[in-house]
Amino acid sequence: MWAVLFVFMKETEKLGVSTLKFLDGVTIDLLKKECIRIVNCGDVEQVVDIMETLAGFCFSFKELVDPSYIIKVCVDKLNPKMAVRYAAIFPGEERILFCNIISEFGRKGHLDSALVAYDEAKHKLSVPNMYLHRTIIDVCGVCGDYMKSRYIYKDLLDRKVVPNVYVFNSLMNVNAHDLGYTFSVFKNMQNLGVTADVASYNILLKACCYAGRVDLAKDIYREVKQLESAEVLLLDVFTYCMIIKIFADAKMWQMALRIKEDMLSSGVTPNKHIWSSLISACAKAGLAEKAIQLFEEMLLSGCEPNSQCCNILLHACVEACQYDRAFRLFQCWKGSEAQEVFHGDHSGNADEIEHAQKHCPSMPNIVPNSHHLNFIKKFPFTPTPTTYHILMKACGSDYHRAKALMDEMKTVGISPNHISWSILIDICGGSGNVSGAVQILKNMRMAGVEPDVVAYTTAIKACVETKNLKLAFSLFAEMKRYQIKPNLVTYNTLLRARTRYGSLREVQQCLAIYQDMRKAGYKSNDYYLKQLIEEWCEGVLQDKNQILDGFASYKRTDLGRPQSLLLEKVAAHLQNNIAENLAIDLQGLTKVEARIVVLAVLRMIKENYTLGYSIKDDMWITLDVNKVDPASKRDSEVKNAIIELLRNELGLEVLIAVPGHLDDIKTDSNNPLDLGPDLVVRLAGNKKMASPTRRPLVVTQRLKVRRESLHEWLQRRVGAIRI
């Protein structure tokens, strides 16, 4: 049909007769139906070919197919080139259609297709289209790829295209999270002679808000106020909203209130977002009375609060421990009778109230003589999940009241989420009901909400606080089985669960968590764990009634040094319950750390010995690779400290091994081999090693404790160990 039509139109054009005269309404309807049929069959390219041909005959084909419909089909089929080709058929409208195509791809999250459409559109246009550039930059922001927006900007500069202020604003807005880059773009805009508008400064304030730079925000605000005084700029409500939010986040409530006065003097009316920020500023500073006063001013001004504003006020009451007031506010907003909700009706004096609260901890905190709200107005209020979460926290240890709130959530059509269940677990666990907290964790899964890391960590915290460590570690193992990744709070809660270690298994358990934590990329505070390891290691030096004092002097040294290497060494040696190869590596450790590692291994040996495992091999201790000059008779501090520990404190026989030789340090006081300057390295056959005269030897020294010596030591001391 189309081929016949095109031949007919071509021939009539040759005769100088307009083809449009022969196309009546019936014909147009038939052509329209045929085009739609072809599109519905998926052959959009054929329709575009038809449209391009009709365009050659100056045919108005808008009546056949809606341009937005064809563009939508091309977007759905991820065919950006065909979409641009179709849009180019419409002279005078192609610029808007190009931007619509890019926006549609961005709305669906197809950034690559949007970039292809952008490149195709650029080649179709004879001059740069700033609206096109701005649209693709905005799409980069929507799709979360801010780096692509920077490449587009660089391409414009490379092509000597000067963006207008709207393109610059879009670029800064997409990159607002990067304060340095945003300011560099702003300066470049000024260098290129592009005048910034109020939106430009608003975006700079937004970048300062993200970065928490109150100082820069103050400077920007001061500058825009000067420009406003010079009638260069007119500040809008967004400017004031951003600067107030910055001060609110920094808990600078007085500065935030000053900005409100500037606003009013400039004739700008605060909106609900500004009122929310002001109330939030006071709430974060713990000023519940001031927050309620601002809420009253908001109502008096005729501005209706949204749910976020109401939630902020509830949170302020809870943070100030005014739980009764929070519940009264909530009931009033839901439509109950207007009553003295803001100040209550408490006739008792302060002493009576204090006495009642002292003997009834669950009683709400009542604030006598509080600010009285004279104006009560009904306004639409829809509670959100956050509303109920705040009120649940206000229940304190009252589990049943919190559970009733969660049930109420369901009745109003709000499904309890992970936060709801976690708060309930925390309340139950906080009251000492650990089994109930764990049961809630199970109920959470049965209700169709898979527990997350926060829920598990909350349950683990409840177990730790009641000293039920076995259950805490069991929940941690369950987390791993469900492939839930622990967070920093989870790890720290478990690592700080113990105040002392009683067995090798407990040490291994905590060290395994420590290693898992470091592998997950978390930086731990090793000092607390190191102290527990030290106490556990001291068990080697203890008998029934006495603790040797030698270790105490070592504890005061090297406390500022990072302990991760020490703990990794201890963990590596205690990985197995039974040490088949008693090789201890002390390289890289200080004398304090080396002592702890050796004691840890000896404690492990002793505990295993009490369980019936005998010593099967000698113990070898590897020291650092050092330049050793035998003639100087001076060894490292680490070696001397370890020999002192093994020989004098534990009564073990120690041998020093250098490459090719093994020398004995006996416990006989008459033996000339002693520590310090009297230490002599002997060869087999009682021959002394010749002292080198030119340069020191580079050797790796090792210490050896024979299996027989370890066995004798175990028999002597095993009865004195506390496990």
From TrEMBL:
PPR repeat segments? 197-231, 236-270, 271-305, 417-451, 452-486, 487-524
The UniProt keywords, alphabetically, are: Repeat
The entry sums up its family as follows:
Belongs to the PPR family. P subfamily.
Q: Which Gene3D superfamilies match?
A: Tetratricopeptide repeat domain
One Pfam match = PPR_2
Matches recorded under InterPro entries: PPR_rpt, TPR-like_helical_dom_sf
- What's the name of the protein? Pentatricopeptide repeat-containing protein
